[in-house]
Amino acid sequence: MIDWSYDRLEARDKTVLDQLSIFVGGADLDACLHVISGEGVSQNGLIEALARLVEKSLVIRECASGRTLYRLLDTTRAHCLAKLRSRGEEDRVLSRLTRYLAAAIRDQTSVEGHKQTVDRWFGPACPNLANLRLAKAWAFGAGGDPALAVELAQYAAPLLMQLSLLSECESMARDALTDREKVDAPFEVWQALSAFLGAATLATKGPTDDAKAALEAGSSRAATPSSARIAALAASGLYWLWMYRGEPLRALGCAEALRPQGDADLGEDDDLVADNYAAMAHQAMGRTAAAERELRDVVDRQARVSLGRFMRIGSDPGLMSQIFLMKTLWLQGRFRSAIDLYEHIRPGLRAPEHGLYRAWALNEALVPLYCAMGDYDAARAVIEELAASAQGQSMQIRCVAGLAAEAALETKVSGRVRSDLPRLLGTLRRNHFHLLLPWLEGVHAEALLAEGDLDACRAILKDAISFCEANQNGWWLPELSSLMGQLETRSANDAMAAAWFEKSHCLSTSQGSLALAIRNLHRVKIWSDAPLALRKKADEWGHWLSEHYPDDGDPMFWVPKD
User: Fold this and answer.
1) Cα four-point dihedral sign 84, 85, 88, 89
2) Which region, left, alpha or beta, applies to residue 27 given φ > 0 means left and ψ of -120 to 50 means alpha?
3) What DSSP state is assigned to residue 1?
4) What is the largest distance, in Å, between two alpha-carbon atoms of the chain?
5) What angle do CA 122, 126, 130 make, to 5 degrees?
6) 35: CB partners within 8 A, 6+ apart
């Protein structure tokens, strides 16, 4: 039937039909006008040919989001694609498709703040991801064009990063850099590809030495304005590398380096990026109260300012700041407010372009929050969602982090160390992935203490505290100090126990992390042989906390009032 209909077409219509078969899924009119070409196929001639082919039911015409889309049935596409290949024309059409996509990405508005642009790339018709993948496979393949492949990668890598397609961004940038000896391109092209390779590797495999080397290569600049902008992108990536490595003080240095110099211009608010990064670093450093004020200010300003120049992900510029704000709220004891904020941003986090942000929210904020509430069923649901999200985004390090969170949760519930927890923590350490390690190691140590393995518990707490103090990673340091105090009670070292409990209280209250102060107070109260001086101090702590602790969903709200 297809042969009969095809054979009755005039030559120009056959050309249009055959070349239309190159598209995966279909294409809008603009893509057709740029990719389909041939003798007698003018712009008007193409439009007329498409109309005739639609009339003959060989092409399906649809309307979606204000665009006219053209596609073939699978059987028709297979037939016409075979015709195209038999005439040796497939490579020429694929070359035009690749050039068109490179130009389309180059000329489009920033993804950030433009949800419709995002939806089109995830949509069914070219320009979209399915056809971008086709163009990439051809350009980097045996019959492709290395120069065109690098041109495509230079524009597509940032797009893939913004769409949270991190493994694809990593692959695109890595393949292009492999062709460096074959292609003569400006320094800035290779600089940018190195920056995006490092940032994507950071998200998929963690803050490895390979990710660091690529970001540092992206930081090397030539004496041009474009090179300086790319170096700022790489500095943004290095900021996140140090945050992943649990070294917020070094991340803070990167944030300050991003502040505009001279004539640099980010739009309405030149210091917004640096302020945003500094606020998140302050949260990781344990400056909880200050971080909340800074993050609220940043979220308000981000609602009005585009940050598309920087290495951002997704269409909503404020989600990451709100995730960190959520974490500060529950550390302050405002559990219900933290969950309300999560429910507010949850629809945005579920958008496909926010996969990395979603992993942050689930892993770094919600798992420890629900565990602190004792809502272990909710924590299990979060871990299941994290696993599905990480696997779907090919974020290998997040898969390991999710397994470690699951092992830690079951360890916490049972009071006994799950057998795979030490191995998973070792994998995270080897990859320098220290984001949630203080919490995970605290859970591990607490279970070892319950099992009576005091020496192993001491070794873990000592190493964790030393790392946090050396790198000013202070957000969980009050809890680790309190656990050390509890350990010393089991070792009958009353003076050291009292010193650690006092340290925990001073740290938590000075930081504004009152949820940790409550838990430290509880450990002192259940210590039946606590020294009299410590009991008196605990009474003072309880009076102060009963006046200052918010009644906002923490199941341990009763502790200072008891």
Assistant:
1) positive
2) beta
3) -
4) 100
5) 55
6) 19, 22, 23, 27, 93, 96, 97, 100, 126
Note the pLDDT tens digit of each residue in 392-451.
Answer: 889 999 999 999 999 999 999 999 999 999 999 999 999 999 989 999 999 999 999 999
One-letter identity of residue 81: L
Dist CA 269 CA 259 (whole Å): 11
DSSP-H helix ranges across 303-452: 319-331, 335-349, 355-360, 367-373, 376-392, 396-414, 421-430, 437-451
What does pLDDT average to over the chain? 91
Q: What is the rounded CA–CA span in Å between residue 549 and residue 557?
A: 8
Instruction: Tell me which residue of 314, 310, 306, 309 sits closest to 164, measured CA to CA.
Output: 314
Helix (H) or strand (E) holding 160: helix 146-162
Exposure b/e, 466-501, CB count within 10 A at least 16 = b: ebbeebbbbbbbbbbbbbbbbbbbeeeeeeebbbbb
Which 8-state DSSP code applies to residue 374? T
Q: Cα dist. 541→227, 518, 536, 559 in Å?
A: 54, 9, 9, 11
Choice between 264 and 210, residue whose per-residue pLDDT is larger: 210
Structure token digits, residue 224: 């041009």
**pLDDT band, very low/low/confident/very high, at 268 (cuts 50, 70, 90):** very low
Q: Token pair of 164, please?
A: 């949270």
Element (H, E) at 68: strand 67-71
Handedness of CA 523, 526, 529, 533 (dihedral sign): positive
The answer to whether the CB of 501 falls within 8 A of the CB of 520 is yes
Bond from prior residue into 127 cis (ω within 30 degrees of 0): yes
What is the rounded distance in angstroms from the CA atom of residue 507 to the CA atom of residue 455?
A: 25
pLDDT score of 40: 65
Please name every residue paired with 68 in a beta bridge, in sequence order, or none if there are none.
63
Handedness of CA 313, 316, 317, 322 (dihedral sign): negative
- The rounded distance, in Å, linking the Cα atoms of 518 and 504 is 10
Of all residues in the chain, the percent with pLDDT exceeding 70 is 94
Residues making up the chain, counted from first to last? 562
Q: Tell me the backbone φ, ψ of residue 196, rounded to 5 degrees.
A: -75, -30
The encoded tokens of residue 39 equal 């003798």
Which DSSP helix (H) or strand (E) runs through 70? strand 67-71
The strand order across the sheet containing 27-28 reads: 27-28, 67-71, 60-64
Q: Please, which residues have CB within 8 angstroms of residue 553's CB and are 6 or more apart in sequence?
A: 334, 335, 336, 337, 339, 373
Give the tens place of pLDDT for each residue, 333-361: 999 999 999 999 999 999 888 889 999 99
